Amino acid sequence: MIKFKEKTREELIAGFKRAIERKREFEAQAQKEFADMRKRGAALKGALYPP
Questions:
Q1: Which keywords accompany this UniProt record (predicted)?
Q2: Do residues 10 and 3 lie in contact, with contact meaning Cβ atoms separated by under 8 Å?
């Protein structure tokens, strides 16, 4: 069995999978936050500069 710093191949693969999942969750949360910021910005612009 191949070991890298005392971790087996399976442990390394599991670690990478967890890291990828965390990255996906972070990106999804960031997209939601940016959408919310855009909505608030549009609302503020509409309030400051009425048509």
A1: Ribonucleoprotein, Ribosomal protein
A2: no
